[in-house]
């Protein structure tokens, strides 16, 4: 009994100390939001995407600012795989002149651009006739720097503008997943405010804002009903200038919007994606633009990051975007 009491006291002390540690060191909360130190999967070389089955992907680096290098992947439509062998960046850039639309993919927290569920999505999109361009924000993967919401947004804007230099009338869509949906709505708000909206915005497993997501996250379950939860945890997030306010951003976005969400999502609850859709459907800035919400039944088991497994996904995209990309054989 004495050992049990001591163990219980240690657990109680640990439980009570965590909120105070977070409050005194809000940078810890920022690390928990970004999880950029979790570089799963381990032991992969991001310079070699072909090791992950992406034999039609080119790795290269760009500098959003002097001394800040970010790693980028460009995956061409799957039918180009033979031509893509041993080609350099000039050839990959030249393929943007084709009629195939381009998707700029903004990943969520944790991992790298080489995360398995991300790679599988690139393959699905590539097989459907899309170019896929993705990158690791500063502080992720092999990219330099330290993450912040403003840096993630500015990096995304830089990559977007780089892509537009290679495109004429080719459609450019923005796809965000999880935390990347917050980056995506920040980016698209900026683009719309400067009068250059993208051709469409696709949000996979989105939330309304980071405070509501943090309160709904399974990690917060043990503290959610603790008096002062907002003060201890949520205010620590705000102290790091982390907002990802998609619920505000949809009032400043003027382009077609597609939201995809699985009912059994255990990381970003389904009701947050639905709430964001309801807000977007009422947004005056989105009036006249197509706004669509596609739920995936819990029986499918797609949870937070497996919507790419849906055999209906290519048709959902082509129906929403209006035309299917040309698929050559």
Task: Describe the fold and architecture.
This protein is an alpha/beta fold. Helices cover 39% and strands 15% of the residues. Strands 1-2-4-3-5-6-7-8 form an 8-stranded mixed sheet, sandwiched between helices. The protein starts with a helix and ends in an 8-residue tail after the last helix. The mean pLDDT is 94.
Estimate the helix proportion, in percent: 25-40%
Percent strand equals 15-25%
Name the structural class. alpha/beta
N- and C-termini, Cα separation? 72 Å
Low-confidence region ranges = none
Q: What is Rg?
A: 21 Å
Q: Which sequence of SSEs, written as H and E, runs from N to C?
A: HHEEHHEHEHEHEHHHEHEH
Question: Which terms summarize this structure?
Answer:
329 residues; alpha/beta; eight-stranded mixed β-sheet; 8 strands; globular
Brief digest:
The protein is an alpha/beta fold. It has 12 helices and 8 strands. It has an 8-stranded mixed sheet, sandwiched between helices.
Write the layout of secondary structure elements.
Blueprint lengths: L1 H23 L1 H9 L22 E9 L2 E8 L5 H4 L4 H6 L7 E5 L9 H12 L3 E5 L13 H16 L7 E6 L1 H15 L6 E5 L5 H7 L12 H11 L6 H4 L7 E6 L7 H12 L9 E6 L16 H9 L8
Parallel strand pairs: 3-4, 3-5, 5-6, 6-7, 7-8
Antiparallel strand pairs: 1-2, 2-4
Helix pairs in contact: 1-2, 1-9, 2-9, 6-7, 8-9
């Amino acid at each position: 009994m004495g050992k049990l009491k001591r163990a219980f006291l240690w657990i109680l002390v640990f439980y009570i100390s965590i909120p105070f540690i977070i409050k005194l060191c809000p940078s810890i909360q920022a690390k928990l939001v970004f999880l950029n130190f979790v570089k799963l999967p381990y032991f992969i070389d991001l310079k070699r995407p072909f090791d992950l089955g992406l034999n039609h992907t080119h790795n290269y680096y760009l500098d959003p600012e002097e001394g800040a290098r970010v790693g980028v992947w460009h995956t061409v439509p799957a039918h180009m795989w033979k031509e893509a062998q041993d080609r350099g960046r000039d050839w990959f850039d030249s393929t943007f002149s084709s009629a195939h639309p381009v998707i700029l993919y903004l990943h969520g927290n944790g991992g790298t651009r080489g995360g398995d569920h991300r790679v599988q999505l690139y393959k699905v999109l590539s097989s459907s006739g899309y170019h896929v361009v993705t990158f690791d924000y500063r502080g992720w993967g092999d990219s330099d720097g330290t993450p912040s919401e403003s840096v993630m947004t500015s990096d995304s804007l830089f990559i977007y503008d780089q892509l537009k230099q290679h495109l004429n009338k080719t459609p450019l869509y923005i796809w965000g997943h999880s935390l990347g949906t917050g980056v995506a709505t920040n980016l698209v708000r900026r683009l719309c405010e400067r009068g250059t909206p993208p051709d469409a915005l696709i949000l996979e497993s989105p939330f309304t804002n980071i405070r509501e997501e943090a309160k709904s996250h399974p990690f917060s379950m043990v503290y959610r009903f603790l008096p002062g939860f907002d003060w201890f945890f949520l205010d620590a997030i705000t102290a790091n200038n982390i907002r990802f306010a998609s619920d505000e951003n949809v009032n400043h976005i003027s382009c077609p919007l597609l939201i995809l969400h699985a009912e059994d999502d255990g990381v970003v609850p389904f009701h947050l994606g639905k709430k964001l859709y309801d807000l977007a459907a009422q947004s005056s800035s989105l009036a006249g633009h197509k706004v669509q919400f596609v739920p995936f039944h819990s029986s499918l088991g797609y949870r937070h990051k497996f919507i790419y497994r849906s055999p209906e996904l290519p048709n959902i995209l082509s129906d929403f975007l209006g035309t299917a990309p040309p698929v050559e054989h």
